[in-house]
Amino acid sequence: MAKTNPFFDVDVSKFTDVSKLMSEFKLPGVDVESAFAAQQKNIQALTAANQLAFEGFQAVARRQSEILRQAIEQTTSIVSELLAAGSPEEKVAKQADLVKAAFEKALANTRELAELVTKSNTEAADVINKRVSESLEELKSVVAKAKAAK
Questions:
Q1: What would the pLDDT profile of 44-56 be if each residue is shown by its tens digit?
Q2: In the chain, N or C terminus with fewer CB closer than 10 Å?
Q3: How far apart are the C-alpha atoms of 98 and 62, rounded to whole Å?
Q4: For residue 117, which of 33, 36, 54, 75 has the smallest C-alpha distance?
Q5: Please, what's the b/e burial string for 46-74 (b: 16 or more CB within 10 A of its CB; e: otherwise)?
Q6: 3-state secondary structure (DSSP) of residue 137
């Protein structure tokens, strides 16, 4: 007996493989292998959904960085334009045009980022929704098999 727990006189090596442990418990009408396979598929689906969500987060962060870089470049350009020679009326008109363009660009950027987030969330949710549907079909199949066995 491999005693790996110093506090209890129990062989815990057989507990490391959960499927092996569960196979020792013979529950009538329960297919342990199928249950583990289903749980493994659930974990794989969650992992895939998390990966998609993380990739979406990265895409949003990259785009935000790009937007910030563009904004800094535009601000530098705007300041240069406003400091250029011209009458006060021309500067006010130019400033109004620049503010309008900046506002429209900010709205477009916000819309684009929202679409990126929505796309990412939808892709991740689709993976989970697909797995839930598959799980329900698997459950239906197990119930049908149990009913047929009676």
A1: 999 999 999 999 9
A2: C
A3: 26
A4: 54
A5: eebbeebbeebeeebeeeeeebeeeeeee
A6: helix
